[in-house]
């Protein structure tokens, strides 16, 4: 109400009292009731809408985090169809929305801490039969190192920076395919693709004094390159007989001093990673919801010739190449 209206209303009020009307009589006036109710109508509506928005946000966040009673994919499908994207286009391999690590971490459904309870060490085993590997390590949360996992692999002798540079030559179909269809992780480097990696100077690649460290990874989804790679290694002997390794191998390569930042994956399956050259320290952490039930951190050093098996979808993990040698790893998921 403006000051002028207030003033005039006060005057009227005083006159009405002077004319002998009581306060009670004045307050029963119809016009006064309307003024009172019109003054209060806006704020209650705003507060009501605000409350509804808060309750809906909390409910949707809970449903998203628990992935129940509606699956996250279904929620996204509803959202995208609201935006006019047809449902069958949403889950094609190329993402409509790139989800950042932080986004994916924040909205990751909570993990059952059973997988890490009581685990504080990573055992080194050898000569393990697939049945024992399956029972103890394949699908639970216990990470393991198989020290004789690369017996008879020629990769130990043939894999090098030059070996990969030759497979993915400039202008080769393999490099073009990798660059447009496979995943590439530059980590802390500024490389935009694999072509740029293989274009770096030999001095930097081989960590000549003072050169900048580097570390990258890529998935090999090129069939012809995959065939060449597989001539140099076999399916690890300890994998359960029925399990299949994915057709896509992962290669991680880089110099001492660098590695992968702390993250958790969302690939669904456990994976094995063969340390062909160099030495890498893995730092494992349970997800925050398991801090009070599991060891807070486990560090493990993987040496050349060893295979590390880890469920990267449950354990947060980061890596650091140590020593003097370039680290080259090849790995795959298994079901
Ligand atoms: O080998 C690395 O440096 C990281 C590998 C990784 O993040 C993975 O295998 O999930
Ligand atoms: Fe990972």
Helix residue percentage: 25-40%
**Overall strand count:** 11
Low-confidence stretches: 91-99
Describe the largest sheet: 8 strands, mixed
Strand order of the largest sheet: 1-2-9-6-11-5-4-3
Q: What is the number of helical segments per DSSP (H or I, 4+ residues)? A: 14
β-strand percent reads: 15-25%
The secondary-structure element order is HHHHHHHEHEHHHEHHEHEEEEEEE
Question: In whole angstroms, how far apart are the ends?
Answer: 71 Å
- Radius of gyration (Å): 32 Å
The ligands bound in this entry are: 2-oxoglutaric acid, fe (ii) ion
Please tell me the CATH architecture of the largest domain by its name: Sandwich
What's the overall geometry?
Answer: elongated
Q: Can you say what the CATH homologous superfamily of the largest domain is?
A: Cupin
CATH topology of the largest domain: Jelly Rolls
Task: Indicate the structural class.
Answer: alpha+beta
**CATH top level label of the largest domain:** Mainly Beta
Plain-language structure description:
The chain is an alpha+beta fold. It has three domains: about 5-40, no CATH class; about 45-100, no CATH class; about 115-335, Sandwich (Jelly Rolls). It has helices spanning about 5-20, 25, 30-40, 40-65, 70-80, 85-90, 100-105, 130-140, 155-160, 160-165, 175-180, 195-200, 200-205, 225-230, and strands at about 125, 145, 185, 215-220, 250-255, 270-275, 280-285, 300, 305-310, 315-320, 325-335. The strands form two sheets. An eight-stranded mixed sheet has the order 1-2-9-6-11-5-4-3. Strands 8-7-10 form a three-stranded antiparallel sheet, with no helix packed on it. Residues about 90-100 have low confidence and may be disordered. The structure holds 2-oxoglutaric acid and fe (ii) ion. The site of fe (ii) ion (FE2) has 4 residues, from loops.
């Amino acid at each position: 109400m403006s000051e002028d209206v207030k003033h005039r209303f006060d005057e009227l009020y005083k006159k009405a009292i002077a004319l002998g009307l009581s306060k009670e009589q004045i307050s029963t006036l119809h016009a006064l009731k309307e003024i009172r109710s019109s003054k209060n109508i806006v704020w209650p509506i705003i507060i009501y809408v605000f409350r509804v928005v808060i309750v809906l946000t909390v409910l949707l966040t809970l449903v998203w985090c628990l992935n129940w009673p509606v699956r996250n994919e279904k929620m996204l499908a509803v959202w995208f169809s609201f935006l006019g994207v047809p449902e069958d286009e949403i889950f094609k391999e190329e993402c409509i929305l790139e989800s950042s690590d932080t986004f994916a971490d924040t909205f990751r459904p909570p993990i059952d801490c059973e997988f890490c309870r009581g685990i504080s060490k990573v055992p080194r085993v050898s000569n393990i039969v697939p049945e024992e590997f399956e029972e103890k390590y394949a699908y639970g949360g216990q990470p393991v190192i198989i020290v004789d996992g690369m017996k008879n692999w020629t990769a130990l002798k043939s894999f090098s920076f030059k070996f990969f540079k030759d497979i993915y030559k400039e202008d080769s179909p393999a490099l073009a395919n990798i660059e447009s269809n496979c995943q590439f992780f530059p980590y802390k480097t500024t490389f935009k693709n694999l072509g740029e990696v293989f274009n770096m100077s030999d001095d930097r690649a081989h960590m000549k004094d003072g050169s900048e460290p580097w570390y990258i990874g890529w998935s090999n989804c090129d069939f012809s390159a995959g065939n060449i790679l597989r001539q140099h290694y076999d399916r690890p002997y300890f994998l359960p007989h029925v399990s299949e390794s994915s057709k896509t191998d992962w290669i991680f390569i880089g110099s001492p001093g660098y590695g992968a930042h702390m993250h958790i994956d969302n690939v669904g399956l456990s994976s094995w990673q063969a340390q062909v050259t160099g030495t890498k320290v893995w730092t494992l952490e349970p997800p925050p919801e398991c801090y009070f039930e599991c060891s807070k951190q486990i560090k493990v050093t993987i040496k050349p010739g060893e295979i590390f098996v880890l469920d990267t979808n449950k354990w947060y993990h980061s890596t650091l190449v140590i020593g003097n040698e370039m680290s080259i790893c090849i790995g795959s998921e298994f079901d």
